[in-house]
Write a structure and sequence with these properties.
Layout: E1 2-6, H1 12-21, E2 27-31, H2 43-59, E3 64-67, H3 70-83, E4 89-90, H4 96-102, E5 107-112, H5 114-118, H6 120-128, E6 134-139, H7 143-148, H8 155-170, E7 175-178, H9 187-192, E8 199-201, H10 204-214, E9 229-233, H11 237-247, E10 254-256
Parallel strand pairs: 1-2, 1-3, 2-9, 3-4, 5-6, 5-7, 7-8, 9-10
D-glutamic acid (DGL) binds near residues 180 and 182.
Length: about 260
């Protein structure tokens, strides 16, 4: 069984693509909404959450962990790999390499949370690629809150997206990398505001492919039809319920998990 977590609903962008490609494997998705957003938290706080969540997922029988959150991957993946050496772990990678290598203008933009952008992983990768392209980073301020409240369109959403894109557009970027799993849910609004020559780079496909590669038959509980999917939140059930029903058209039941410390 695959276990996934994110600070909230963003990782459902990964869940959606994973389950479309692997419809017969059980998946347990945990939204840490009681602690969302992670983007303004310290690495120590994010590591503590990631560890508590991983312990819980292992107790539930998970055999592979997908950290469906760039911020948690950046802050905690190395720690998790050391602490749980037997557990295969897939994390989110900001896809700046393919963007930098195919840039014509020599400038690319990255949208991510503040915690991801200040992280060592991102800074190292950006330094390695500096001969290929200049990387302009921008926090998607307000994006996570919009997605958590199901506001994927409308005036406020367009204005919030426009404010984040403006500095990147001023630098003549020709690729914009989505470096947070909440952001693919805003991709239609982002696309609508970009000139046609600017590509949006979303790493979700690559992460799903890597998950499928690591998921050996010994790690699988499936094939099961229909695969049982579980959704757990450390926050209020209502926002996740609405999101699953109205945006993903999933009528699944959600379990509340208030005592995950
Ligand atoms: N979805 C997350 C990410 O990929 C976290 C956003 C947040 O909680 O700030 O970065």
């Amino acid at each position: 069984m695959i276990g996934m977590f994110d600070s909230g609903l963003g990782g459902l962008s990964v869940w959606r693509q994973l389950t479309a490609q692997l419809p017969d494997e059980p998946v347990l998705y945990l939204a840490d909404q009681g602690y969302c957003p992670y983007g303004g938290r310290s690495d120590a706080e994010i590591i503590a959450r990631a560890e508590a969540i991983t312990d819980y997922l292992l107790q539930q029988g998970v055999t592979l962990l997908l950290v469906a959150c760039n911020t948690a991957t950046s802050a905690a993946a190395r720690h998790l790999r050391l602490k749980y050496p037997e557990l295969p772990i897939v994390g989110m990678e900001p896809a700046i390499k393919p963007a930098a290598l195919s840039s014509q203008s020599g400038s690319i933009g990255v949208l991510a949370t503040q915690a991801t952008l200040r992280g060592e992983k991102f800074r190292q990768l950006a330094a390695q690629l500096q001969n290929h392209a200049t990387i302009f980073s921008q926090a998607g301020t307000g994006f996570v809150e919009l997605v958590e409240s199901g506001q994927l369109d409308g005036e406020q959403t367009h204005a919030t997206v426009a404010a984040a894109l403006a500095p990147l557009l001023a630098h003549n970027v020709d690729h914009i990398v989505l470096g947070c799993t909440h952001y693919p849910f805003l991709a239609p609004v982002i696309r609508a505001q970009l000139p046609a020559h600017i590509d949006i780079i979303d790493p979700t496909d690559a992460v799903v492919r890597q998950t499928l590669r690591l998921l050996t038959p010994a790690l699988r509980s499936g094939p099961l039809s229909p695969a049982p999917y579980r959704f757990v939140t450390t926050g209020e059930i209502s926002s996740m319920q609405q999101f699953l029903q109205h945006i993903l058209q999933r009528p699944d039941r959600i379990e509340a998990l208030a005592s995950l410390h």
